[in-house]
Amino acid sequence: MVRGWIVCAALLCLLSLGGRAQAQAQPLKLGTVDVTVNWRSRAELWDWFQGNTGNSDYGLGHSQLRVALGQKRPRVDWLVEGEGVTIFGLPADAVAPAPLGQLGMGASYYAANGNSANNASGFLKQAYIQLTLGKSNLKLGRFEFFDGVEARSPDAAVTTIVQTRVVHRLISNFGFSAVQRTFDGAQLAWNSGSHNVTAFAGRPTEGIFQVDGMGEVDVQAYYAAYNKSVKTTNGAGSLRVFGIGYIDTRSTVLKTDNRSAAARMADQGDIKLGTWGADYVHVFHTKDAGTFDVLAWGVVQTGAWGNLTQRAGAFVGEAGWQSTTSPLKPWISGGYSWGSGDADPNGSTHGTFFQLLPTPRQYARFPFYNMMNNEDAYATLNIRPVPKLAVRSELHGLWLADAADLWYLGGGVFQQETFGFQGRPSGGLKNLSTVWDISGDYRLTPFLSATVYYAHASGKGSIASIYPKGNNGQLAYVETTVHF
């Protein structure tokens, strides 16, 4: 609870800064070339669930500096960006024997970097050209890609919901991690009025937990989507229909699923998945009662999970209300998320929804879970006490979708020799945890912003069966970002 009071005090400090007006930031130029600098630094405090061995309580720090040069011209854009990463103070005793596993992200950083407590690296983050061809544009090279970001709407409320509640679910850069990921590939987009068609093909880079993000992984991702912006008399909407192909040909990497170790070691078949889905966001604007919003997102998943047949799915439903008159600008929302699990570890079908290459923390802010074999009932409150301060708090009730499956963690492949997702035994129990958190984001100047965050997880049956000495967990951090 001490960490909770520290973070609450930091939030009060942000509140006390008020909403003083600041001058607008001016873009940097090197002749005719645009220069962009983004420097993010974070100090994290982890209090992972406590087992019979291993260090669950530690701090760490990391810094990510990105410097880019680029130009935007009528027909050709280009950008070259380098990244320098430093991760320090990692715990040497937070990787425990199974089923305890890696005790928080500090352990993941430590294991991914050759069991080293302090790590640094520099590499090419992005390098691409983008050609404008009438209503189309073609991007080639190394760049970040986010599924769903191509949806466009003239309605600001629709855009906010798409950016915060749709994007990053299946393909993303794992933005919370110290290193993140990019893709080597191509993206083609066509825009005409309210219509958009986007196609993408790429291979993810290494990184995320590993400080060297230069190399590729033998995984392929293909994406195609049709997006339609909708305008109604008293509202607006955004429709997306999409398909994603995912191919993992790393036959020597052990798959993470609920089969026995012997069965998984014998399965060296490729993972070849098709994920087919759609989502729709709509907002209803009223004169006196505020703005109401609804969201529906769903996918089915087919293909091959090595020697098994893949049959899985996931869906999300949300509804919210935003005040247009209160000075706090409250946005209250609630929802339910479900990702299928596997009911039979000895069967011929793999029923666990596979989340591909996401940023899990976009929807799991204390990232000890994701959408795989997961049920999540949640409520969210957003307020703006002053114009430059955004406060967000969430409450989640978490269960495993199927007690015969695992409790899954992670956000996808990040090393050639590592699968990318971890699994913990369920203990035959479905109840996972209750989580409450709060955060504050404050824009101190046009160049500098700060974030403070605190979360507390009350572990239930599945977690308690693995971590008997302490089934509660906490995460707190303070982050600053310099951008110009």
Task: Write a brief structural summary.
The chain is mainly β and 484 residues long. Helix content is 9%, strand content 50%. The strands form two sheets. It has an 18-stranded antiparallel beta barrel. Strands 18-19 form a two-stranded antiparallel sheet.
What does this structure look like?
The two termini are 36 Å apart. The radius of gyration is 22 Å and the shape is globular. The strands form 2 sheets. The protein has an 18-stranded antiparallel beta barrel. A two-stranded antiparallel sheet has the order 18-19. The protein is mainly β and 484 residues long. It has helices at residues 2-16, 105-112, 156-165, 261-266, 461-466; strands spanning 28-30, 33-47, 57-72, 76-88, 119-133, 136-143, 183-192, 195-204, 219-232, 235-248, 271-285, 291-305, 308-322, 331-339, 349-350, 374-386, 389-399, 407-410, 421-424, 431-443, 448-459, 472-483.
Radius of gyration: 22 Å
Give the SSE order as H and E letters: HEEEEHEEHEEEEHEEEEEEEEEEEHE
Basic shape? globular
β content, as a range? over 45%
What is the terminal separation in angstroms?
Answer: 36 Å
| Count of helical stretches | 5
Q: Return the structural class.
A: mainly beta
Total tally of structural domains: 1
Q: What are the low-pLDDT stretches, counting only 5+ consecutive residues below 50? A: 1-24
Main beta-sheet strand count, sense and barrel state: 18 strands, antiparallel, barrel
Helix content: under 10%
Overall number of strands? 22
- Second-tier CATH architecture: Beta Barrel
Write down the CATH topology.
Porin
| Name of the top-level CATH class | Mainly Beta
